[in-house]
Design goal:
Length: about 170
Amino acid sequence: MFQDLLVQLHDLVSGLEPWQQVLALVPVGAIPFIESYLGSFLGAGLGIHPALAIPAAVLGNLAATFVMIGLAGRTRDAVTRGLGERPAGEKQPSRFRAKIATALEKYGVPGVSMLGPFVVASQITAPTLVALGAARSRVYLWMGISIIAWGVLFGAFGSLFLAAIV
């Protein structure tokens, strides 16, 4: 039954023009928790050529994540400017924020960027890093590397998956 569904989806996708396949995958890559790795896997696994599936899913994920980094940076700048005018209150950080802060101290921006998307979506991990004070340029760089690397790896797995079921 599942294999029949995959075959039907493969037939549907293979009937689309390449530009339509790319246009379908870019927004899929922007969806949190699907991102570049599942988007490229699904695209390649459904028969979209990996040379189209991987960049499309990666592009969607990069765009969504980079927008979130920019927004988080502007928000952090505005909040820290406001905190300079009045004393900061002693507020306990949320459990999620405390976990990210601990991981940031332990693994740094590269480690959290590379491993974070498997725990929390990159569109959540990246702005949290910025909110915790990580340099935006490092977050942009390492999240970009992470999104591309995981997209390529899972796109290759999707191609192998397609070859195994067809």
